[in-house]
């Protein structure tokens, strides 16, 4: 059967519009997808930049708390007229002044936590609230910090007791974040046949950490335990050395086999906590021969103080953005329009960080005032850091042992089941 040339040409004419229509639809859908990707990228960038704005707010709050504690009574006479500040404004400066500023910071970030806790997508209204509206949020921050100065001293004291618990929770979250980071780093540098250079560099890094840890232990004895009468410092340092050895032995055990890198990093961390705890002892103690500074502080004291404030902000910031370490489900797939980090968790950590910096500024003591340009000094601070060190070592050892314990329990449970199945077979 022969088909005429005219019929073929007519068919081609009819097909061309259909093909062109399909192509145009594909181009439109492709352009829309590209536009969506650009929009997602822009929103994600604004969301990531917002973190630093909140970090600056937190830093400013720390500086306000320090100013109120050390110089507020002399430079802010207006507070003397507030009824809640008591006679001469005494209840709005020093320890209570720090707690009032801390409460204001807590109120601001807790309100942000409540308003962003369920945010999931980039184009939700709550994402806009988190990443924009800075003029209104600045006004909200000012109001939040001002309100506690109109509250009674008894309520502020009650908040101080509550802040101790919140600061402890913050230390726990920070500890979990640090251990998760150490485990990730250890897995990244684990031996790999295809990347032998990475393995050798990981071994070199672990050696450096262990050398630094041992040197830290050795140096602390003559500096902080120069006499046999310094029994408490000797105990702190010796027990830290024992924990270091235990972590190394457990990490190298054949059933654990986690290598030296993670235990080396953790060893350096607990040695640092031990050193920081001993440094927090009162300067008048006979086993800690730090020179007393004058009321205004010398340049080393001021520099150390500013570095401590920056460390507080960095610790809060790094813990706040590490929401993945606290997810129960690790297999969640990140979509293009998902928010880059959990806003609710971020603001919750900052609200707990407000309690934490208050405890550092008042040295965990609600009944006495800290010295000018000092931070986290006193026996309460010392014991908080020592307990934190011991808990860090315990939690790390549990992360090493728990997989082995769980596996052995599963095997013990499976063996009777297997024996029952075998006995059921004729």
Automatic annotation (TrEMBL):
Cellular component annotations (GO), alphabetically ordered = membrane
Q: Which InterPro entries does the record match to this protein?
A: TDE1/TMS
Main subcellular location of this protein, as a coarse class:
membrane
Protein name, UniProt field: Serine incorporator
Q: Which UniProt keywords apply?
A: Membrane, Transmembrane, Transmembrane helix
The membrane-spanning stretches of this chain are 52-69, 97-117, 138-159, 165-186, 207-225, 231-252, 259-278, 302-322, 343-366, 386-406
Would the keyword Signal be found if you checked this record's keyword annotation?
A: no
Top-rank taxon of the source lineage equals Eukaryota
Topological category with respect to the lipid bilayer:
Multi-pass membrane protein
Q: State the family it belongs to.
A: Belongs to the TDE1 family.
Q: What's one Pfam family here?
A: Serinc
**Compartments (UniProt record):** Membrane
